[in-house]
Amino acid sequence: MAWLIGNVACYHVGSTHSEPLSTDRPGSRIFLYRDQRRVAYRDYNGPALVRGGAGTGKTVVAMHRAKHLADQIAADPTRSPERVLFTTFTTNLAIDIRSNMKTLCPEHLEGQTRGSRLSTSIGG
Question: In this structure, are residues 121 and 80 in contact, taking their beta carbons and an 8 Å threshold?
Answer without folding.
Answer: no
